[in-house]
Amino acid sequence: MQNVVNEVVVSPFAKVRECPETGYKSLYAEIAFERGEVISSFHARETFDRPSYLTLQISDLQHINIDPEFLQYINHSCNPNVFFDTIAMQVIALRNIKIGEEFSFFYPSTEWAMDRGFDCICQSENCLEFIQGAAYISPSILLDYKLSPHIRKKLTV
Length: 157
What we know:
This protein has 157 residues and is mainly beta. 7% of the residues lie in helices and 33% in strands. It has two helices and 13 strands, in the order βββββββββββββαα. It has a three-stranded antiparallel β-sheet with strand order 1-2-3, with no helix packed on it. The chain has a three-stranded antiparallel β-sheet with strand order 4-10-9, with no helix packed on it. Strands 5-7-6 form a three-stranded antiparallel β-sheet. It starts with 5 loop residues before the first strand and ends with a helix.
């Protein structure tokens, strides 16, 4: 018997898939995007001075719950296809994205020290295996990624 994945279209460009076994959710492209294209704008639904499991760090001391809320289902990958531009408050395609492809971003590109680390399961060739924020990754590795200004600034201090 094949598992049925629960899918919900949440916008003209994306759908959320929920794994019936784990309950984990992820966001998939409903349309194609080209490298550099804006996928979505976002803004702060709530702002905090420390990270939590669902926040996105936008500056040294600001962590936000994002709106639209479905963007929180963009999961981590060590080979990401999107970037959260924390200045323009936009999600940008880092490379061409095909219809049906999962959106993913490199969490340490915005997160200095995460609320909790996790074992990475991205299986990319350059997988870092354990993710807990940019503070725990060598600058020589981090500089291979597009980074938010608040993360890049900490690497040059």
